[in-house]
Design a protein that fits this description.
The protein is an alpha/beta fold. The chain contains eleven helices and four strands.
């Protein structure tokens, strides 16, 4: 099963004060009341597409069980150029710490699956050390093994639509095809290699897409997050619910299927 490293929310000043010296000096810092609520730093285009699209929905707060907050995918989500390894080494702090004067909170989202990965816990701690002492509130989300694990939700019909399932697949579900190919263990919640599973279906002609379009379509079409068992996604939901507590109708609609008009995210 996937896991998220959950040690990371900071609500104090932290102990890594030397990092603060790396933040560029600003002659006229933005007043706290004028800061934007949240900035995301992500490792690749797939994360940018999925998170940007989902938070672009009019009903995202109902789905996540949090209060609504202002989010602009053009300004509030930053894609790193160096991907996961660079963020883990030092780039996360370099990119985010200079934005502290503009934002109240920060979330970093990275994959665990890359060559030379030190593992989810170590990835989490290395990135957290870059932000501690600069950000009062931040979270590091490590997806194990990678973003495609968020894609494999327990809804075969939805997965077919998002993958643009072709006639070759017939009435079989993607899971059935992948089990026959030895890429999905019987009884497992998700494929052992979620990215390879998507690639295989495309290579064999079962789907019409394997690029970032699948993440956008899933984020737009997902009727509920109740079935999402990935621990890293659950950690993200818990963080947003803590930072933006739901009240009234939003709390009542937690994990619901509100059909408010959606706004499509476009790059």
């Amino acid at each position: 099963m996937s896991r998220a490293t959950a040690k990371g929310r900071r609500s104090g000043s932290g102990s890594a004060t030397p990092l603060a010296s790396s933040v560029p000096q600003q002659s006229a810092p933005v007043e706290e009341g004028a800061k934007r609520e949240l900035v995301f730093l992500v490792a690749d285009k797939g994360m940018e597409a999925m998170i940007g699209t989902f938070l672009g929905r009019q009903d995202f707060h109902y789905k996540l069980g949090c209060a609504r907050f202002d989010f602009n995918h053009k300004t509030d989500i930053v894609r790193a150029g160096g991907h996961d390894p660079g963020l883990v080494k030092r780039e996360a702090g370099k990119i985010l710490n200079r934005r502290r004067r503009e934002y109240r909170r920060a979330v970093v989202v990275v994959d665990n699956a890359y060559e030379g990965s030190p593992g989810p816990d170590e990835i989490h701690d290395r990135i957290a050390a870059q932000l501690d002492g600069v950000w009062e509130q931040f979270e590091v989300i490590v997806i194990d093994p990678e973003l495609e694990n968020w894609f494999w939700v327990d809804d075969p019909g939805l997965v077919k639509r998002v993958l643009l399932w072709t006639p070759k697949g017939g009435d079989r579900t993607p899971r059935q095809v992948l089990e026959e190919a030895g890429l999905w263990q019987h009884g497992a919640a998700k494929p052992g290699d979620p990215k390879r599973a998507v690639e295989y279906l495309y290579e064999e002609g079962y789907t019409g897409d394997q690029n970032n379009g699948i993440f956008k379509r899933l984020a737009l079409a997902l009727p509920s997050v109740r079935r999402c068992t990935d621990e890293s996604f659950q950690r993200l939901m818990a963080t947003l619910a803590e930072w933006f507590p739901a009240q009234g109708a939003t709390a009542a609609g937690e994990y619901g299927t509100d059909h408010t008009k959606q706004t499509e995210y476009k790059q």
